[in-house]
């Protein structure tokens, strides 16, 4: 019963539509009517700029982390690492679903990558750090957030299954499912990448301009 209540709370935390509220409160628009139509950090970067995109991204990451940390309210789980990790996965997944289908924003949210990353930080911070390295490297080289997210998600099960060899079958399956989910939710981005029409985020653009001169 307590677990079900925490999962509901985690879903409500994930449902906080950061991008929607920021765009409506500060710009008088609904971010979902512009750019890619997603209520996430990437679209906020494109439409509102790096400052607001960063703010949305940080808050969305914290949503996933906060959901995972709800597990501390059930201290008896701390005695079993595998049970604790499984509970944290359940809470984090609830938050990600809340971000994708937010009850506070007509169930039309973002793709959940930032919130998913917060989940991973809460469960395995070293893996999150490694995935961050992949994400930032690809972002620096390409300025494509979508490509950075896809490659970082593919790296996630590699780190879990091969590099760190995590001894939790549920978490191993979860890592593979995350990679597949991110690829699935980025089908349109992948198509645009192949067509050469995918938008780049407005960071490091001055570096690219200097290179093109």
From TrEMBL:
GO terms for molecular function: acyl-phosphate glycerol-3-phosphate acyltransferase activity. Its EC number is 2.3.1.275. It is found in: Cell membrane. Keywords: Acyltransferase, Cell membrane, Lipid biosynthesis, Lipid metabolism, Membrane, Phospholipid biosynthesis, Phospholipid metabolism, Transferase, Transmembrane, Transmembrane helix. It is a multi-pass membrane protein. InterPro entries: G3P_acylTferase_PlsY (IPR003811). It catalyses: an acyl phosphate + sn-glycerol 3-phosphate = a 1-acyl-sn-glycero-3-phosphate + phosphate. The chain crosses the membrane at residues 52-72, 84-104, 116-137, 144-164, 170-186. GO terms for cellular component: plasma membrane. It is an enzyme of class 2 (transferase). One of its GO terms (biological process) is phospholipid biosynthetic process. Pathway: Lipid metabolism; phospholipid metabolism. Catalyzes the transfer of an acyl group from acyl-phosphate (acyl-PO(4)) to glycerol-3-phosphate (G3P) to form lysophosphatidic acid (LPA). This enzyme utilizes acyl-phosphate as fatty acyl donor, but not acyl-CoA or acyl-ACP. Belongs to the PlsY family. NCBIfam families: glycerol-3-phosphate 1-O-acyltransferase PlsY. Probably interacts with PlsX. This is Glycerol-3-phosphate acyltransferase.
